[in-house]
Amino acid sequence: MIRFQGVSLRYGNGPQVLRDVSFELEPGSFHFLVGPSGPGKSSLLRLMYLALRPTRGTVELFGRDLTETPRRELPALRRRIGIVFQDFRLLDHLTVFDNVALPLCLAGLRAGSVCEHVGELINWVGLGHHVESRLPVLSDGEKQWVAIARAIVARPSLLLADEPTGNLDPDLGLRLTQLFAELNKIGTTVVMATHNETLAVRFPFATLRINEGQVAVGQRRAGRLQ
Amino acid sequence: MRRSEWSLPLGGDATDRFLPWIIWLLVFIAAIALVIALALGGAAERWRASQSGVITVELGAAAAGNLPIPLLIDVRLAPTGGATLDQVRAAVAVVAPGAQVDDAGAWLAPLARTVSAVRTVGYGVLALIGLASIATVVFTSTTGLAVHRDAMELLHLMGAEDGFIADQFQRQALIMGFLGGLAGLILAAGAFALFGAMARGLEAPLLPRLSLDPAGFVLLAALPFAAAILAMLVARLTVLRALARLP
Ligand SMILES: Nc1ncnc2c1ncn2[C@@H]1O[C@H](COP(=O)(O)OP(=O)(O)OP(=O)(O)O)[C@@H](O)[C@H]1O
Ligand SMILES: [Mg+2]
To answer: Which of A163, A219, B197, B214 is 20 to 30 Å from B146 by CA-CA measure?
Structure first.
């Protein structure tokens, strides 16, 4: 699903964020991306959702070498990825409904049952009373749920979430991770960055540990709670 | 919660409401400059037409005497089949030997040159305003769209095609440009109505009549469309150029 080969990354003339990193994530896997604060978790995810090109090395996604994929074929690849950005990146001038519906709009789907699906999802994440609200009236926790709903609404085959529990209290963080685990069960490959390792150890998933420019892929292990 | 079609106002962020105001002002100024240049050209043309074929007969002091005739006589030659200047000169020489016969065109020529120079300057000013308008629309659109960089990048990352993203922003620019242009045109029309009323009140025959021929009206009516299309093209090119720089 995702393959890094000899990937190095640095921003401009800054320090190297990744140093000759190679690893592979299987389709249908679930990984917690963990590490101390600021080692490059977001940067690693950015490489995965094609917001960055590596300084050196190759990134493969869905079995395609991205350095050799023509530009016009990238949008279709991107539409198969659901992204929860660390800073949400919601469109403030749209309603909650329209924000969540955006990926379906980009996929060229038309109204009808799709609309009900969006409404259901918004209800499910507990924002039913905010369907037609604009973004600025929402709290950070509520925006986090909108960002999550938008990332999963189009049933992506790859879900990349950057600190999705960062703005949620522990109960909701647990509930969110359970939701991702459910999606993983039906085939979605998940990479979830978190600095909350006490949350991560409650699930039987492998870790992707990043530290000082190196990435180590851990083993899947038995969880304490599931 | 049913909608006939997905069409989210993705480019409809409130931050570039500046564009219609700029366009409003530019179209207003351009409309006024256009009307003045066209009207000046028309007035010069009409005036020259009225003066061509006029011959001035200046009677000398000898002929004037006590006769109740004016010292200057304008002779209008029939456009076709009439007398020529020489024939008039010969005829006058018989009755008033000292009289001088001049072709109006002779002294009109420098005046006509002046009028056409003024008209050329008018068109020059109009061209400059046009260039300034284009530059301003380009500048305003580009800076306005810089505010949308985040939204553009987001749509790009979510897998929107470049053309789709450009459509969102160019549609907005088209609407804004047209509304601004229309407002400018309406205000210019108001200003001319006011000017016309004032000119009538003054009964000042020296003020040129600001009348336009149909072609002038077409040009004037085209201003808001030109502004809208310009804003749209600039938006499209700006967005596509910004997207091309993204990975
Ligand atoms: N756009 C950028 N330009 C320059 N340097 C950057 C940029 N983005 C990140 N960095 C640097 O790269 C390093 C890794 O940043 P990154 O945001 O990927 O870390 P992170 O693990 O996600 O941090 P956090 O735990 O705070 O979310 C940091 O040193 C950061 O300063
Ligand atoms: Mg981060």
So the answer is: A163
